[in-house]
Amino acid sequence: MLGILTALLSGALMSVQGVFNTGLTKQTSLWVSTGWVQISAFLVCVAAWLFTGRSKISALAQVDHKYLLLGGVIGAFITVTVIQSMSALGPAKSAMLIVIAQLAVAYMIELMGLFGVEKADFQWRKVIGMAIAIAGIIIFKWEK
Prior knowledge:
2 domains
C-alpha cells in the first residue's frame, strides 16, 4: 500500500513540478530554469543527507556499473523535455504521454532484463493495458 501511495504522490509531484518549471522557463530560459531545478534539488539532497545519517559519498566511486551514475544527467534531460512538452501540449496531454512512455520503456526494460533488472516474461494483459491507456489518450485528445 505504501508503494502505491508513494507512486501516486510521485506522479502528482511530477505534474506540479512540470507546471512550475514551464512557468519559470517562460520568465527566464530553458537552461536557466533547468539549472535552477537541478541546483535546488542538489541543495535539498545535501540538507537531507546532513540530517539523515550521512552515508559515505565515497561509495559512489565503488558502484559496480558506472552507467548507474548517469541518473542526474538523465534527470536534467527529463526536466528539459517535460518543460518543452508541457509548453507545447499543456499539462494533461503531456503528462499522459509521459506516463505512456514510462510504461512502455519500463516494460521493455523488464522484458529484456536490462540494467540489472530481473527479466520478466511477456504478458499480453500488460500490452493490452498499455493499448487501453493509449486509447484513453486518443479519447482525451479527441476534438469534435
